[in-house]
Structure formats: structure tokens, C-alpha cells
Write a sequence for this structure.
């Protein structure tokens, strides 16, 4: 599950301490998954999955109620365990904070998923887990102990955001339409994905289902939907602008991380004659393959990746409210 470092101009936990929160995210997610999977395998499922500290995660010798209710063979259980793909990412890196202690900031917004039904397979359990962990990620990307941002409900329904967070590995850091300040002027970028080895600038081109986008000039493209045709502004203008902004930020801070541009549409097609250096076109035909390629990353987080994320965070605009004001408003209502 990729980490949502910044969502638009919302306050983010990663702004507090980027050296600590990525490792804490990975440990928290893995500890909860190990615990929930163990409960499911032993039949020790509870109505509410409460937060469990790392030192409390212990194997308990209990009679397997689950096996009595669902008499799967041991071989079947082991087979499903092998198919599990909740990734385990190496977190012992030169940038990571060793021996993390639980600070005051860490005592809030703990992950407490609800058991809405009893999953019959490990795959169902995993889906329930990642769906509820998505809401937890949104909290981390929009609030801290002292501050909170108003979240547009559209992000909770954003299928691309959910797909990226749930499909990409833990060592990917995502900036989702961040608002940064360039010479005191706010600029909204598109999607920035920082992998351990490169920076992906992604511009999304999704309009009507089955739309075909045909490049026929530097400034304007042709959009065809059935028999209808319409001239649209070239999406490469926005994509190139984002790359230049990110490149400028990296150059000013001595960040050596290759930048690759992606033009993405999940529900349409891109017809671009020839190839263009530094740009990948990912349409409906290539999207599953592209996501699988990104998902196969096995490299641990890198120091340069964290530095790159920090330099972007240093330029972002943040709009938030102190929690005391938030609570006062709730009482007045």
C-alpha cells in the first residue's frame, strides 16, 4: 500500500517528521495485518479490531474455532498464505529512525478497523483490510494531533487514488494534486509518485468512456467519442509544466532523481504517432500492465527518495484549522 504523503493542500502527518512516519506507517500496517490474519486463521475474530502495540503481537495457543466452522484442510490454509501479497518492505535504511518510540503525536488516529462480516477466504480478508486502511490513510493525510483539514468527499470516492494506494507498494510516496507555492503563487500540480529510483509525474486524461485522444499539434489534440469530434487543449502542456516545476525544485536542492512523465487514461485511448522521449502513454490497454510493473518494485526506500519528498513538502501550501476551533464549531452547531 503506497503512502499518501500529501493530498491537495491538506495538513499531513508527513509534514511533521518525514524521517519517522514512513517507517511507522509500514510497521503499523504490517503489525495489524499479521494480527488480523492470525485471528482469522485461528477463529479468534472479534467484533472490533482494536489497536495493538507492536510488543503485544504474540501468537496465542488456542483451539481453532475457525477450522471447526469452516473445515478447510491445513494444506488449503498454507496455500492461501503463500498467495498473500500484503508486501513486507525493508525498513532498515540509512534514512530511517531506529527504535521508534511512541510519542504524543502517535497516540491519535490509530487504526481500528471494524469487522463488518466474516470473510471466508484470505483474499476477502485482505480486501476488507485494505479498504478500511484506505480511510486510515486519508486521516493521516488530512489531520494531525493539533490540526485538521476539511476533506472534499470526492477523494473518498476517487477510484484512481484508491487503486494507487492499495496496489502500489509501501515504499512509494504519493503527492496527489498537491498545491505548491512558486514565487508566492499557488500552483496545483497533478500526481507525483516518488519511487526509490525515480520520480513519476502523472497527468490524468479521463473524460468520456472509450474516448480516443489523437495528437495532431503541439497545442491542441482531437478528442473522438463515437462519431463526435472535439478539439481539446493538449494534456502535454500541463504535464510538461509539472515536470519543469519539479525539476526546478530538485535542482535548487541538489536532488539527483530521474523524472519520468506519464500521460494516463484508464477509460480511453491515446493515439500518438511515433514516440516521445521521456513520456510514457498509458491508456486503457496498457493500464493493468503498467500497474503490475510498478507493483513489482522490490527496492527499499532510498535516502534520495526521502530527500526529494522533503523538498517538495517544503514548498507545499497547507490549509488547516486548529482542532480547538474545529471542536468549538461542532459544539455551536
Amino acid at each position: 500500500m503506497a503512502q499518501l504523503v500529501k493530498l491537495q493542500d491538506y495538513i499531513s502527518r508527513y509534514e511533521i517528521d518525514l524521517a519517522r512516519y514512513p517507517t511507522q506507517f509500514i510497521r503499523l500496517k504490517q503489525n495489524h495485518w499479521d494480527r488480523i490474519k492470525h485471528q482469522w486463521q485461528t477463529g479468534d475474530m472479534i467484533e472490533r479490531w482494536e489497536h495493538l502495540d507492536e510488543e503485544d503481537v504474540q501468537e496465542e495457543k488456542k483451539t481453532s474455532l475457525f477450522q471447526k466452522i469452516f473445515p478447510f484442510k491445513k494444506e488449503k490454509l498454507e496455500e492461501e498464505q503463500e498467495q498473500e501479497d500484503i508486501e513486507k518492505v525493508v525498513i532498515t535504511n540509512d534514512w530511517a529512525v531506529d527504535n521508534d518510540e511512541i510519542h504524543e503525536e502517535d497516540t491519535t488516529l490509530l487504526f481500528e478497523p471494524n469487522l463488518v462480516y466474516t470473510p471466508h477466504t484470505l483474499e476477502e480478508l485482505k480486501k476488507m483490510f485494505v479498504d478500511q486502511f484506505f480511510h486510515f490513510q486519508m486521516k493521516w493525510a488530512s489531520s494531525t494531533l493539533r490540526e485538521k483539514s476539511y476533506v472534499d468527499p470526492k477523494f473518498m470516492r476517487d477510484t484512481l487514488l484508491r487503486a494507487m494506494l492499495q496496489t502500489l507498494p509501501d515504499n512509494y510516496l504519493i503527492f496527489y494534486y498537491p498545491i505548491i507555492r512558486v514565487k508566492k503563487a499557488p500552483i496545483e500540480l497533478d500526481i507525483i509518485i516518488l519511487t526509490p529510483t525515480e520520480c513519476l509525474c502523472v497527468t490524468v486524461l479521463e473524460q468520456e468512456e472509450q474516448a480516443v485522444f489523437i495528437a495532431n499539434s503541439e497545442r491542441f489534440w482531437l478528442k473522438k467519442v463515437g462519431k463526435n469530434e472535439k478539439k481539446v487543449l493538449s494534456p502535454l502542456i500541463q504535464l510538461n509544466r509539472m515536470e519543469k516545476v519539479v525539476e526546478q525544485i530538485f535542482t535548487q536542492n541538489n536532488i539527483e532523481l530521474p523524472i519520468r512523465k506519464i500521460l494516463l487514461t484508464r477509460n480511453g485511448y491515446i493515439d500518438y504517432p511515433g514516440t516521445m522521449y521521456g513520456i510514457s502513454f498509458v491508456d486503457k490497454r496498457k493500464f493493468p500492465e503498467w500497474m503490475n510493473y510498478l507493483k513489482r518494485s522490490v527496492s527499499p526506500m532510498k535516502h534520495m527518495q526521502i530527500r526529494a519528498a522533503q523538498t517538495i513538502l517544503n514548498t507545499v501550501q497547507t490549509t488547516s484549522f486548529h482542532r480547538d476551533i474545529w471542536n468549538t464549531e461542532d459544539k455551536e452547531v
About this structure: DSSP finds nine helices and 14 strands in the chain.
